[in-house]
Amino acid sequence: MKCSVFAPSHITGFFEIKDNKEPLKKGSRGAGIALDKGVVTNLQLTEKDSPNGSNIEVTINGEKDQKNTTITHKTMEIMEAKYKINHLLHGTQLKIDHKVDVPIGAGFGISAACAIGTALGITKLLQLNLTYNQATSIAHLAEIEMQSGLGDVVAEVNGGITLRIKEGAPGVGVLDKLLPKNKDLYILCKSLGCIETSEIIGDPGHKERINQTGGAMLNQLLLDPVPKTFLKLSKKFAENTKLMTPEISEIIAILQEETMGASMAMLGNTAFAISKTPETSIENVIVSRIDEQGCRYI
Questions:
Q1: First-last CA distance in the chain
Q2: Is the CATH number 3.90.650.10 carried by domain 179-289?
Q3: Which ranges carry the GHMP kinase N-terminal domain (predicted)?
Q4: Is pTM, for the whole model, over 0.85?
């Protein structure tokens, strides 16, 4: 049996951390954009020659990657605790390969995309009696537990330029999205490397600056719900939270002149812009479109 799931990558422009003792209700408010580049998770389930136990192999782009497959194993661990999937996997071999076409750890929400692909894929392969929101909520729980993200799962489920009105997992959080008048927009990204998400959202100083800056921005965007306002607020957020590096600041300044606006991906050492054309003077940029559909079986 085989199954494939696509989850768009997601760039957050600005956000506010919202804590809650219940993980399904914990998350972030804010705004971000889903890209048509992301993660295709391919799962294959076969019977083993020997019926003893199960054999699980997880790879990224066909290669073993212990660090970046942790979120996949955490997702399966949660599914085992809730739905006893190991019993259903007994005597089988499960292969999970994540095909990733954007940088990992650079603010593209790849851990969330891998978790979504794992949860939806296993749900289909094992024919679990779960709804779409119930399955994708498992990915949210994995993200919260790993401190690898707060709002990427619901945004990738939704697609588009997503407004996270109320924090929480799919089915718990409240979402809206912008409706750009121009549908032929490009997302231009230039990544210079990684930022460890857990070091930012788990740090009291960073958290205070993030919430002081991002707390009122969502309401400002709702008053003028267009991409240019989203970009303007995102740039202000990156500057005021002091998360922007000088190198990224230089790239943003160039993109600002060439596009509708630019800012820094939260949380990653990556500049992004929304543009009416794919052209830019910046070399080696990632060019994509807005993904309006959200994660789905393919």
A1: 14
A2: no
A3: 78-160
A4: yes
